[in-house]
Amino acid sequence: MRKKESTDYANEQSLFQLCERNSAISMISGRWKGQIVYYISQGYDRFHLLQQKLPNISETVLARQLKELESHAILIKREIPNTVPTGIKYILTNKGIDLVPILDSLCNWGKMYADGKKITLAADQQF
Is 97 helix (H, G, I), strand (E, B) or coil? Predict the structure, then answer.
């Protein structure tokens, strides 16, 4: 967490006021958040299932990313009734469900323009 008195925090708040895009990007920034949202949308809604799908993520990082997504109301966690120990599953909110096609579009954009792929200018653009 950043200190609220820090220059970083002040700059972030200033950017958020300029455009909501910056706030949206901040909500989903993080190496694993896009994949976590995607896998939950595909039914991998338990902690251990997410760990199986993301074998390179540590438990600590997964827990932190889930908590951050929950703090932004992208997902909620619910207890699974009649389980011992108490089971938890993660459910996307409407906000999270609306995010899935955006993440799909970002994935497609990344496939087209990933590092090393040729980029050309539109016919009417000049350097």
Answer: helix
Cα distance between residue 6 and residue 71, in whole Å? 21
101, two tokens: 């096609």
Is 1.10.10.10 the CATH classification of the domain at 32-112?
yes
Structure-token pair, residue 6: 């820090």
Domains of the chain, by residue range, sit at 1-30, 32-112
Question: How many angstroms separate the CA atoms of 124 and 41, rounded?
Answer: 40
pLDDT for 49-83, tens place per residue? 999 999 999 999 999 999 999 999 999 999 999 98
3-class state of residue 92 by DSSP: strand
Of the candidates 104, 75, 72, 67, which has an alpha carbon nearest to the alpha carbon of residue 92? 75
* Radius of gyration from C-alpha coordinates of the chain: 18
Dihedral sign from CA coordinates of 81, 63, 91, 1: positive
pTM for this entry:
0.78
